[in-house]
Structure formats: C-alpha cells, structure tokens
Amino acid sequence: MMRKFEFGKNWEKFLKVVDEKRIEEAEKSLKKLLNFESLKGKTFLDVGCGSGIFSLSAKNLGADVYSFDFDENAVNCTKKLKDKFYKNDTKWLIEKGDILNKKIYYITGKI
C-alpha cells in the first residue's frame, strides 16, 4: 500500500489565518484559472479539497460543490469552512474519498 502524507494537519494550521483577504484572493485565482466570473449553474468538483478554501471560493461564486479528500483532517477543515459560511447548504457535499481508489464515484444525483 502506498504511504500518503497527511496534509490535513497543515491545513488545520492554515485555517487559523484564513481571513476575508485570503478568501478573496482564492476567488480571484479560481476565476482566472477557470476563465469565469461566475460559477452559477455549474458544479465544482474539488478533488483533494485540503483546507477547503477553493471549495468555499467556488461556492461564493455560485457553484454547487462536491469536495473530497483522503485525509480525514482535510475533510474536517473543509467542513469547518462550510459550517462557518454555508452551514445548512445542501448544495455543498463533503466526503472522505480517494481519487486513486479503483472504485468509480458517480457524482450525478449527489448534488
């Protein structure tokens, strides 16, 4: 079995310094990368969601979001951001998962 580094503990430290400016910068970065001003009506798949800041940014830009990571601490970081900004939003799902798992994940119908 391949050993994986647990980034989630680093993301927990990062969450302590996440502020409005960092969120705004993440949103700008996402808009530039995707070449969209808005993600309204789109689904954003965040594979290896880490801190959750890009999932949050996609949500702020109007997307339905599906976030997952193999690291439980990273999943918990993303859940903390969701709880802070979109607590009861059913259009942002967060799960533990591994993109390298041979099991096929179907997103259709999840959001």
Element layout with pairings:
Blueprint: H1 8-15, H2 20-34, E1 43-47, H3 53-60, E2 64-69, H4 72-85, E3 92-96
Parallel strand pairs: 1-2, 2-3
What key phrases describe this protein's structure?
111 residues; alpha/beta; Rossmann fold; 3-stranded parallel beta sheet; 3 strands
Mean pLDDT across the residues is 87
Q: Alpha-carbon distance between the termini?
A: 32 Å
User: In percent terms, what proportion of residues is strand?
Assistant: 5-15%
Helix content: 40-55%
Lateral arrangement of strands in the main beta sheet: 1-2-3
**Count of helix runs:** 4
| Whole-number total of structural domains | 1
Can you describe what's shown?
This protein is α/β, with parallel strands linked by helices and 111 residues long. It has a single domain, classed as 3-Layer(aba) Sandwich (Rossmann fold), CATH 3.40.50. The protein contains 4 helices and 3 strands, in the order ααβαβαβ. Strand 2, helix 4 and strand 3 form a beta-alpha-beta unit. Helix 1 runs parallel beside helix 4 and helix 2 crosses helix 3.
Question: How would you briefly describe this protein structure?
Answer:
The chain has helices at 8-15, 20-34, 53-60, 72-85, and strands at 43-47, 64-69, 92-96. With 111 residues, it is of the alpha/beta class.
